[in-house]
Design goal:
It contains 14 helices and 22 strands. It is α/β, with parallel strands linked by helices. Helix 1 crosses helix 4, helix 3 packs across helix 5 and helix 5 runs parallel beside helix 6. Bound molecules: magnesium ion.
Amino acid sequence: MTEPKKKQLFGTNGVRGVVGELMTPELVMKIAMAVGSMRPGTVAVGRDTRTSGPALIEAAKAGLMAVGCDVVDCGILPTPGLQYLVKDHFDAGIVITASHNPGNYNGVKVIEPDGTEMDDENSIAIEERVFSGTFATKGWEAVGSSRSAPDMFQEYVDGVVAKVPAGIGKGMTVVIDPGCGAAYRTTASILSDLGCRVITLNAQPDGRFPARNPEPSEEGLAPMADLVRSVGAQFGVAHDGDADRAVFIDDKGRFVEENKEFALVADAVCHGKSGIIVTPVSSSRLIEQIGQRHSCTVDYTAVGSIYVARRMRALLDAGKSVVFGGEGNGGLIYPNHQFCRDGGMTAAMMVHLLSLKKETLSSLVDNLPPSVMLKHKFHTDKAPAMIQAVSKKFSGDKINTVDGLRIDRADAWALIRPSGTEPLVRLYIESQTEAVVKAFEKEILDCINPIIA
Ligand code: MG
């Protein structure tokens, strides 16, 4: 059997790198020339707020036009915003963003005509063109054109608002922290269109990210938590740099762990429906527990939002009912909206959840089934030996090998998963009680410690 080809430039979600090192206008232009050679037609481009964005987006436009594509520049908007527009209007899309990475990074996400992120096979085909310089370069009579569409993001805002009942936010006060990123003018619009009273912080676009890192961590959101408490808001919502993810602060000012967020939003999305929820093997079992309330089952995929999105599409194509999907990092996918993570939609769904439940977010969080999750990281190149030992020791248990090795027991589960990009192995263990988690942890560590010692 031949080894499957590996991606060299593309990671889990596009190409990322430090600006001026890997990430240069030259590289972006070559990627754009490859994209335009493979997906000819009219291509939309957009970006987040990074200081390097204007230079890199011009490089993308130049590359696309050079291979004959007509370009529509949608300016600054969330990645799901551009995905939404591509799905309805364009032959492909390119987003210049480094998502949650710090300001010195930037990157490229390639969007397919259906609005999904490009899969591994096509990403490798892009790389091969970039490395070999195989581009469908055009002469003077066939080069493409460029125009700006800075207000087109409004279509995305309206599209999200249309997916939830009108006026459901009336009487709610919400705080929004886009972190000076791409959602600076979308999420506030969405929530105020739903009737919410909206208070923002860090809502000026600023690619130096003066207030907090684009990664919406509990630490970085402390000022928002204070604001939520002081204004008596029902919740606070924050995004990463390109707003495909959303995370929440509850009415008591507490950070809502993202697996809990996923479970709570699933409760609203699955309301009155039955079918399948798709999520990676790394997600909490809370999703299964909430799914059971609505006759929904969980289908596990490899780790990465594109695998979740593509599995959702494949199940739908096979005639199955697919209700919801997402990852335990605040990246949630709504199949009746679009097949990508959408932070603005997740903010709207939180309003929907609170209006359905007529309870505070803090009490919804506190009433979730108990969950204790342990996470370990091992810096080692002995992943194959670790996996082999664990798979032998736990051969009597239910095993899933879609990504690493997941052991499912009635009262607990564990995942041991090598990183795809670095010599690193991650271990997750979850149960409802500390005692069970600790006992399971000991069983696994007794098996792997001798290997990495
Ligand atoms: Mg992101």
